[in-house]
Amino acid sequence: MDDLDPDRTTISSKTVYENRWMRVHEDQIRCRDGSSGIYGFVDKPDFVIIVPIQDGIVHLVQQYRYPIRQRQWEFPQGSWEERTDARPEDVARGELEEETGLLADEVQEVGHLFPLYGTVTQSYRIFLATGLSMGRQQPDREEQDLITRAFPVPELERMILDGIIQDAGTVACFGLLRLKRLI
Questions:
Q1: Pick from 61, 54, 128, 123: which is nearest to 93 by CA?
Q2: Helix axes 168-179, 153-161, angle to 10 degrees
Q3: What does pLDDT average to in each consecutive run of 10 residues of the chain (183 residues)?
Q4: For residues 72 and 145, what is the distance between their CA atoms, to the nearest angstrom?
Q5: Phi, psi (degrees; rounded to nearest 5) at 29
């Protein structure tokens, strides 16, 4: 085999579970060395994470995350499963207002990451939202427990360092924005 051969070749693929938010696949694969095996992964739509900041104050949301049975602070984030053709910037603006009630004069895309590319196809785009003003908060039914609150950037840093914020996307977004000197 040469370097142009794929590391894994799909022999067959089947969907073993599907709902509105995800599809779980189990693929029969062949490895470079000829051995075979299975690979399971989740196919989910891409999403956005929005970092709303103004005058050194960032806005976070807190909600109950069922898989880990905990409430968590995080940057607003979400996807439009029923509108997969929507522009990511439009999704960012929509999710920001839906979850926090905030409108942004400017929404700038600052990065693109994969949260779990070993098991999930999903990726997310990071948006910095500035020029904030109040709109109307309209959380989805699944977000009825959502709380929104503003924090000074030093408090956000402390919450990350103290392990209060455990959402990997929020921590990665904050780190990327710090490295780009946008926060």
A1: 128
A2: 130
A3: 71 95 95 93 96 97 93 95 87 95 97 95 97 85 85 98 97 97 94
A4: 11
A5: -125, 160
pTM, entire model: 0.89
Residue 65 · residue 72 · CB < 8 Å: yes
- Our measurement of the distance from residue 126's CA atom to the centroid of its chain's CA atoms, rounded to an integer in Å, reads 8
Q: What DSSP assignment string belongs to the chain? A: --TTS-SEEEEEEEEEEE-SS-EEEEEEEEETTS-EEEEEEEE---EEEEEEEETTEEEEEEEEEGGGTEEEEE--EE--TT-TTS-HHHHHHHHHHHHH-EEEEEEEEEEEE-S-TTTB---EEEEEEEEEEE------GGGTT-EEEEEEHHHHHHHHHTTS---HHHHHHHHHHHHTT--
Which residues make beta-bridge pairs with 155? none
The b/e string for 78-96 (b: 16+ C-beta within 10 A; e otherwise) is bbbeeeeeeebeebbbbbb
